[in-house]
Amino acid sequence: AQSVTQPDIHITVSEGASLELRCNYSYGATPYLFWYVQSPGQGLQLLLKYFSGDTLVQGIKGFEAEFKRSQSSFNLRKPSVHWSDAAEYFCAVGPSETSGSRLTFGEGTQLTVNP
Amino acid sequence: EPEVTQTPSHQVTQMGQEVILRCVPISNHLYFYWYRQILGQKVEFLVSFYNNEISEKSEIFDDQFSVERPDGSNFTLKIRSTKLEDSAMYFCASSVRRFNEQFFGPGTRLTVL
Fold first, then answer.
1. CA B94 to CA B47: how far, in whole Å?
2. CA B78/CA B65 separation, integer angstroms
3. Is A22 exposed, middle or buried (CB count within 10 Å of its CB: 0-12, 13-18, 19+)?
4. Are the C-beta atoms of B96 and B27 separated by less than 8 Å?
5. CA A111 and chain centroid, separation
């Protein structure tokens, strides 16, 4: 069964600092991978996705993520964090022929941005 | 930009009551989903729906739950007799095709007293 692990429950960074949020997945084949962001009181907004091809994918709001098959990772990065990036970030895997249409989410990483 | 909408944003109900959560998926999308997030826990898949029938459901989606597309725009989740443990944020999502990215609505927070 597919699974996703986000090792960091909570991360605090200063505004302007770089950010990396970790995501590890367990999956039998080439996965479809996603990062979603949830601001307080809001729904899940898609930041970026990886289906195939270039392993470095660009998303909205200046985020990027790199797919590393050898490490089963799909870490999210941003070179300079803004205060408005404070939110909860979810990594997700799926859907696929084997897992069906469901997305499987990680536990989420809460990002706090200090001024 | 088209988006998924959900109503109500917050629903409070008594244990044992029926609730219906409503969603309007993006208009050209063909696949519809419900997920839930119990406070402090992961987002969990409940059910997917295509061509007016359930295409997949999780073990959470028992006989208490049902989904329906009553007209050309709405997609509903019904919980027949709510329990305390049904308290959660319920998210609707839609996608153009089965293996495309899913776009989520803002959620309905259900509180069962």
1. 12
2. 6
3. middle
4. no
5. 12
Per-residue three-class SS string for chain B = CCCCEEECCEEEECCCCCEEEEEECCCCCCEEEEEEECCCCCEEEEEEEECCEEEEECCCCCCCEEEECCCCCCEEEEECCCCHHHCEEEEEEEECCCCCCCEECCCEEEEEC
Tens digit of pLDDT for each residue in A46-93? 999 998 888 999 999 999 999 999 999 999 999 999 999 999 999 999
Considering chain B, what percentage of its residues have pLDDT values greater than 70? 100
Q: How far is B58 from chain A (nearest CA, A)?
A: 9
Determine contact, residues B50/B31, Cβ cutoff 8 Å.
yes
Which amino acid appears at position A96 of this protein? S
Nearest CA to A59 out of A73, A45, A39 is that of A45
Q: Which residue has the tokens 């995501």?
A: A23
Q: Which of A32, A92, A106 sits opposite B99 (nearest CB)?
A: A32
State whether residue A46 sits within 8 Å of chain B by CB: yes
